[in-house]
Amino acid sequence: MSHLYWLTEAQMVRLQPYFPKARGRARVDDRRVLSGVIFINRNGLRWCDAPAAYGHPKTLHNRWKRWSDMGVFTNTMAGIASEAPDNSTISIDATDLKAHRTASSLRLKKGGLLA
């Protein structure tokens, strides 16, 4: 049994309108790459540790970086949230993020913001 994450076809159909138009050369399979990006981010892996099933790690990183800079992921989340009926709640991801207790003191050391 595979423990890899794959977006479904229904999810891809819902996300497709938010993707930028391909120009020139055809893009590598969106489903494979986005599933890989989600897998990497959900599991806290380095790009170089991406399973081979998702393709080359540099492709995953490049797509994530390019689309992040373009605001594609932000627009996608805002668009999906705006489709919800009034007075309803949408949960996009159940991922919990935690900051290490020493993270807040990093700004105070060695020329940080408060130095």
UniProtKB/TrEMBL annotation:
Species assigned in the record: Falsihalocynthiibacter arcticus
Residue ranges annotated for the Insertion element IS402-like domain, each copy included: 7-75
Pfam family, one: DUF4096
Taxonomic lineage: Bacteria, Pseudomonadati, Pseudomonadota, Alphaproteobacteria, Rhodobacterales
Annotated protein name in UniProt: Transposase
